[in-house]
Design a protein that fits this description.
The chain contains 12 helices and 10 strands. The protein is of the alpha/beta class.
């Protein structure tokens, strides 16, 4: 897939700097005012919009407000560019769905940070048909909070944000996230109602499904773990009446690598982590699609943060 970024700014040097920054990874489309941007959006599919906040005529915030009323364009991720955002303008942009502000000075001072923010926003742009309105809003809030936490650079905080957000969307009774390295696993996150957990929860490397995941590298869903070939902690699941399970592997691949590979995990990418969710209410196919895509794509953010924390 050829990812397209639309840049809206009345300052020509900004267009030059952004095109020079993004040209090796993205197709850059240029608009010098909001009307030019609207014309481009009517003709082309765009994956991300970078918009100045101060422009003659319609401002960046007014454009953001208008685009959120357009059924076909309201889901396009928007990042606002500015030099001096006020608290009031920041809050209005967030309320209208902007993922973040990018200070223009970063285009000169920290180009890699700008690239990280853009990659993260495209990687977490996950659109699932069939979600109810409440789940869709919770998914959008999780993505925004995930971005905010990841920008701070904390691997452990980002893992916790992802786990807590998934529990809010899906309402699990048990959620675990493990690091996987050299055929060993280490528990990093545990969310469980009533503090229930299996006896051997810290290490899952001895589980039959662990070996199966390493071989298939595929997420799975089962709504009858008791008699299924796939499933973790089967005795625990029987005891707590938890027949429904979703398990998703995470892989050692960064956002850039995932985007350059059209959101596909390379066959030689090793497993880096594993997310396990259990509950008594059966999972729908829509919920499975949401969780598996969100974890696969946001897992690339976790891997980059992990590498940075351990470099």
């Amino acid at each position: 897939m050829n990812y397209k970024v639309l840049v809206i700014d009345d300052d020509e040097p900004i267009h030059f700097m952004i095109k020079n920054l993004l040209k090796n990874e993205f197709t850059v489309l240029n608009a010098h005012n909001v009307q030019e941007a609207i014309d481009i959006l009517s003709e082309k599919d765009v994956n991300l919009i970078l918009s100045d906040i101060h422009m003659p005529g319609i401002s960046g915030l007014e454009f953001l407000e208008s685009i959120r009323l357009d059924e076909k364009k309201k889901k396009i991720p928007v990042l606002i560019m500015t030099n001096l955002p006020t608290v009031e303008k920041e809050q209005k942009a967030y309320d209208l769905g902007a993922a973040d502000f990018i200070k223009k000075e970063l285009l000169n001072n920290d180009r890699e940070r700008v690239l990280e923010i853009i990659r993260m926003k495209i990687v977490t742009d996950i659109r699932i048909t069939g979600l109810d309105e409440d789940q869709s809003k919770k998914k959008d809030r999780l993505v925004m909070k995930l971005m905010e936490t990841a920008i701070s650079g904390s691997f452990s905080d980002t893992v916790e944000t992802l786990g807590n957000g998934l529990n809010e969307i899906i309402s699990n009774k048990f959620t675990g996230f493990w690091m996987v390295q050299n055929d060993q696993s280490k528990l990093l996150y545990l969310g469980s109602k009533n503090s229930i957990k299996p006896d051997n929860v810290t290490d899952i490397s001895g589980q039959k499904s662990f070996e199966l995941l390493k071989e298939t590298k595929e997420a799975y869903m089962t709504n009858h773990v008791f008699n299924d070939e796939q499933g973790f902690f089967v005795d625990f699941s029987k005891k707590e009446d938890l027949p429904a399970e979703i398990t998703v592997p995470l892989f050692a691949i960064s956002e850039r690598e995932l985007l350059m590979n059209n959101m596909n995990v390379p066959a030689d990418a090793p497993m880096f982590g594993l997310l396990l969710m259990k509950r008594s209410v059966l999972f729908s196919s829509t919920e499975f699609e949401l969780v598996s895509r969100l974890i696969k794509q946001s897992g690339s953010i976790l891997y980059r943060l992990y590498k940075k924390a351990n470099s």
